[in-house]
């Protein structure tokens, strides 16, 4: 059976600019071949089951690499795989998309092309520069600034100047001075506004606005790096009036979130809406005991607890995390049905667990005013009658303060049933692994103490004094402080409160 290749544009970097179609196809891929310019958050959408191949290009050895990439696409498709060739921006805009299809066409491999948002237009937009404007120009041109092997350019500067249109140069930073000189020699006025836009749509986005005469020296002063595009034309003047990207509360802030992957997206999405660039580190993963062959004993204990629940053996059920709720109900439905809960009271540690419970059609009977184990235990113990029988299906090695507080109820019977474990996972993406190692972010958000430990284990280093941690609660904070991190703790144990805490830190000017 023949496979198929999808040539997919990933957009300039911001995951919000990746198309819905591209995302859907990516999630069904068997093999993903990606480039250096594909945004990190987009790489995070690659399913765990897919094989990942890096086809990044390094200046200088283009030809060989390109042929190798073409071969990989062909060979994987011949194996019957669904191959996604993921490229920065749009695959047909200086993306060599055409070249990659030639070999496939020759071998009658079926393929599709999914266009992407090109950096040529999106990066100016993220900098407040409309590439066309009726008052200033009537055309826009996209040009490669790349030099040939003999160092000459394929650019007809006279023709470009005559168009009076906006000129967008990709791959032009190393030739910036030559391009500006070429345009002026061809008759462009020295006062023509021009811009260099660096790392567009990421938290590190920067721009230099100058004139075609001063742009090279201004860029040198500002140490502009790649990837960046050059825009020449009167529309560049509008950048200061129309800029919007950096006006959002968390603009320019790079945040790392380390939550179990399954629950991560909600928090990331909210941070992105506030303007942050989010790196998702799947530092830990929750594994139900009944899905782990190495955990048979604990799985049996959990099942025994369910039998006991069915036979009226418990009065209260306590949940201490949303994952705990989901994992408990999954097993309950596999083995029994909802009726075993009739007459049972339910307590939750906080808002997240309460919501998770609600999704099963159940209301919590009790929730403490401060969301941590100690408060849950103490406040609940205050209302429980003597001899209460309590089941707590939760993470293995859960917090002991909860148990200590509940034990103060006379004759109480507590079953602390491990329903899941948190496992450390390392990333399959070399740059992600590296980002974790370097704690390559302005802030790291921790939503549990085990996330802190997962992050530490994954980073493989000893000094965490440079890490600015935003913690969800006291236990998380303690874990982060033990590692020497700089910490801040949100007022409440909710995502909103964590985001507020981060905003406070940013407002106080640390970053
Ligand atoms: N197919 C891509 C362009 C590939 S050529 C697209 O449609 O966007 C690579 C060049 O694109 C880089 O040298 C740089 O000029 C530009 N580029 C890509 N992503 C960029 C980004 N996020 N910010 C600034 N320039 C970018």
Short description:
This protein has helices spanning 20-27, 40-43, 62-78, 97-106, 119-126, 157-163, 176-185, 215-221, 239-242, 264-273, 296-310, 322-335, 351-358, 373-381, 400-406, 430-438, 449-459, 474-482, 495-507, and strands at residues 4-9, 31-34, 51-54, 82-87, 111-114, 140-144, 166-170, 193-198, 206-211, 228-232, 254-258, 277-280, 284-288, 316-319, 345-348, 389-395, 413-424, 443-446, 468-471, 486-489.
Describe this structure in words.
The chain is of the alpha/beta class and 511 residues long. The protein is 35% helix and 20% strand. It is built from 19 helices and 20 strands. It has helices at 20-27, 40-43, 62-78, 97-106, 119-126, 157-163, 176-185, 215-221, 239-242, 264-273, 296-310, 322-335, 351-358, 373-381, 400-406, 430-438, 449-459, 474-482, 495-507, and strands spanning 4-9, 31-34, 51-54, 82-87, 111-114, 140-144, 166-170, 193-198, 206-211, 228-232, 254-258, 277-280, 284-288, 316-319, 345-348, 389-395, 413-424, 443-446, 468-471, 486-489. It has a 5-stranded parallel β-sheet with strand order 3-2-4-1-5, with helices on both faces. α15 links the parallel β16 and β17. The radius of gyration is 28 Å and the shape is elongated. 43% of the residues are buried. The site of S-adenosyl-L-homocysteine has 24 residues, from α5 and β10.
**What does the main sheet amount to?**
5 strands, parallel
Please tally the β strands and state the result: 20
Which ligands accompany this protein? S-adenosyl-L-homocysteine
Overall pLDDT confidence? 90
Q: Biggest sheet, strands in spatial order?
A: 3-2-4-1-5
**What is the overall shape?**
elongated
Give the number of helices. Answer: 19
The percent range for strand residues is 15-25%
Query: Which structural class best describes the helix and strand composition?
Result: alpha/beta
Low-confidence stretches: none
Measured as a percent range, the helix fraction is 25-40%
The Cα radius of gyration reads: 28 Å
Distance separating the two termini: 54 Å
